[in-house]
Specification:
The chain is mostly helical. The chain contains one helix and no strands. The chain has one helix spanning 3-68.
Amino acid sequence: MTEASIIQLGQLFGAPGLFIGFLIWDRMRLSAERKAEEDRREAQADRRIDADKTLAASLAALTTTVQTLPRS
């Protein structure tokens, strides 16, 4: 919601229009913040999955190495 549209709401509908305009703006702002937070969490989950895959591969290689060591 732009500044001009908020002013227009105030001119057309007075205080109730400004209040409704504020509520709409607030909802839009919160929605954008939620979307950004979801994107951040998704990226973090993707990085964690990649790290887990790398760790699993490293543990598998270590297990194979330990199993092939000669026993004394």
